[in-house]
Structure formats: C-alpha cells, structure tokens
Design goal:
333 residues, mainly alpha, flat
C-alpha cells in the first residue's frame, strides 16, 4: 500500500509539473504569436522597404538623427532603420512619378513647350522629394504630440482608477495588467500593454518596466507619475495615498485647462467671424462691384479671377487651418 500510494503521489506531482510547464510556456508563445500577427498585419511596408534597400540606407540615417527618439515616443511599432528605408523608398517612387507625370501633363494637356515642361517636371520632382522627406520626419513628432495630449487629458481618470486599485491592496504589476485589459479604450492601455510585455516576455521586473516606460513616454506629466510611483515603491511608501494625491492634483489641472480652453474658444470664434465670415463677404461684394464696373487689372489682378480664388481656395483653406488649430487646442476628452 505504501508503494502504491508513493507511486500515485509521484504521478500526480509529475502531472502538476507538466501542467505548470505547459501553462508557463503558453504565455510567451501566445505573446510571440500575437506580436507576429501584429507585425505581419501592420508593419509589412517597413519590412518590405528594409528588405528591398537594407544597408543601402546608411547614408540617409544622419538626415533622420532625431527620428529614432521620436519613433519611440510616438508609440509606432517600427524599427528606426526600417522607417528610414520606407522614407527613402517612398521618396524615390514619388519623385520618379512626379518627374515623368508633370512634363507629360504640361506638354500634352496644357500645351507648354517641351523645355518648359521638363523644367517644371524637375522642379516638381525636387519639391516632391523635399515634402516627402519632411513629412516622414514630422509624422512621428505629430504622433508623439497627439499621444502626449491624449495621455495628459486622461491622467485624472487613470490616476483615480489606479488609486482605487492600490487602496484595495492590488500590487503595482497587477494594476497595469488591469489597465492593459480594460474594455474601455484608454490612452494608457497601449502603454500598460507594453509594460506587461516587458515584464512577461522580456523578463523585466515591474520597476525596470516602469522606468523604461517613463523614458519613452512623450508626456512629462505621465513620466512624473511613473517616476513618483517607482520612488514610492522603492521607499516603501503608501502607494494608495500617493495616487490619491496625484488624482486630486490632475483634477485641479484639468479644471484650469477647461477654463483656459473656454477662453481660447471665445477668441477663436471671434477670429473665425472676422476672417472667414465678415472678411470674405466684404471681399466678395468688392470684387463683384469691380467686375461689373470693369475696374481692376488683367491676369492675376482680374476681379473675377480673385473672386474665384477667394471662393474656391481661400475660404476652404482658411476653414481647414481653423479646424487644425481648433483640434490642437481642444482637449481630447
């Protein structure tokens, strides 16, 4: 009986160990498979450009010397060299298209001379090259700025949620796991998933993962929150009390920001009425009267041409610029 019991116990122990091995090995495998799916789905342009150009983009890396830091802060899952490869490949393709298409259109459609068409094609190709490179350089900066504003607008809700969990005795690692699994789409969810990835896949401890997140985040306020959290855990302080204090601080800043936004919105409304409502009306009446009386100049100074330019170009572009400014100053939530 003793031998049979011992064999049964050993068998159960082996089964438990096998289950634990399968469970522990399935976590990184699932994360790796999910990363591969995400890469195959979202980063195929980067991979294609890098495989096509490879090391030949080394001479262009100094042009994007700040893009590596901006890529990390923007949250884009793209390698620096792969991003530069895509920028160079896209610039070459678009410049070649402009170089061949612009002369053909000008020569066959607008009946310009061959030499003028070639010159315009070369100029348009150089302009396309410059604009494409500038666009690839600025895009991570804009993404980082958008992520920064979204994070800072959500900080009162994030810190309040974390304070509730910390008050219930939930550890720091589990707080970020909870944020990563949140059903509501929050700006912190992506950052929390990256922190959980660093802990479960890369083997970092929670403090090292938080320190890495504080270095790559574009938001100074969120960085202060993470660094304060790290200092509180290091010193053995009251994490719930710290997060509650951060919550009250961010709520106060949120109230001030909303008051400032209301004042700014009033100023923007006055500018919109003056520049895009009253101003165009005055110009339309003036150009129409000049056209009827036969006044004005010829060519670019023709009142009818100026009226068309104002109606079909000036007002739409002004409205677009106003919408961009309004989006830049308005809170995300």
């Amino acid at each position: 009986m003793t031998t049979n019991k011992f064999r049964k116990i050993c068998k159960k122990v082996h089964e438990s160990v096998d289950k634990m091995k399968n469970f522990s090995s399935s976590i990184p495998n699932r994360l790796i498979n999910r990363n591969r799916d995400v890469q195959n789905k979202h980063t195929s342009p980067w991979l294609f450009a890098y495989r096509f150009l490879g090391k030949r983009t080394a001479m262009f890396l100094p042009l994007f010397k700040d893009a590596d830091t901006n890529l990390q802060k923007s949250g884009m899952k793209a390698n620096f060299k792969a991003y530069v490869s895509l920028a160079v490949l896209s610039t070459a393709i678009l410049s070649a298209v402009a170089l061949f298409s612009i002369p053909l259109v000008l020569f066959f459609v607008f009946k310009l001379s061959f030499v003028s068409s070639i010159l315009f094609g070369v100029g348009g190709s150089l302009l396309t090259m410059a604009l494409t490179l500038i666009g690839f350089y600025i895009y991570p900066i804009l993404r980082a700025d958008s992520l920064k504003r979204t994070l800072e607008d959500a900080l009162p809700f994030i810190s309040g949620y974390m304070a509730i969990l910390a008050g219930a005795g939930v550890p720091v690692a589990n707080i970020f796991r909870s944020l990563a699994k949140a059903d509501v789409s929050l700006a912190i969810s992506s950052e929390a998933r990256t922190i959980v990835r660093d802990m479960e896949l890369l083997g970092m401890d929670v403090l090292s993962a938080l320190e890495a997140a504080s270095k790559r985040t574009p938001s100074a306020k969120f960085k202060d929150l993470l660094e304060g959290l790290i200092a509180t855990v290091h010193s053995g302080g009251n994490m719930a009390k710290y997060l509650a204090q951060r919550f009250r601080h961010y709520v106060g800043l949120r109230k001030i920001a909303l008051r400032q936004f209301a004042d700014t919105l009033g100023v923007l409304a006055e500018f919109y009425v003056v520049l895009l409502v009253a101003g165009p009306l005055i110009l339309v009446v003036m150009f129409a009267v000049m056209a009827m009386l036969g006044g004005g100049g010829q060519g670019l100074l023709d009142p009818r041409f100026l009226l068309y330019l104002l109606t079909y170009l000036g007002i739409p572009l002004g409205s677009i610029v106003f919408l961009i400014i309004l989006d830049m100053v308005s809170p995300r939530r």
